[in-house]
Design goal:
Elements: H1 3-11, H2 19-26, H3 33-54, H4 59-65
């Protein structure tokens, strides 16, 4: 498997992005910003961690990088 195939396979695990949540998380002046950021972190933490692990980083380093 090539590096490009590995990256593509890793990206396949990401959920569909809800851009309204991204926009809400970026607007810290609203009360919805914090819950939106928490939602993004819950949705994307593990896929990002798994991607970093697939790149060869140790579990501890992958946690730090994520």
């Amino acid at each position: 498997m090539s590096d490009a195939d590995s990256v593509h396979a890793a990206c396949a695990d990401f959920t569909t992005t809800h851009w309204s949540v991204v926009v809400a998380a970026g607007d810290s002046s609203t009360p919805t910003a914090r819950p939106a950021l928490e939602q993004l972190c819950r949705a994307y933490w593990y896929p990002l961690y798994a991607f970093v692990r697939r790149l060869g980083h140790s579990p501890a380093d992958a946690q730090d990088l994520t």
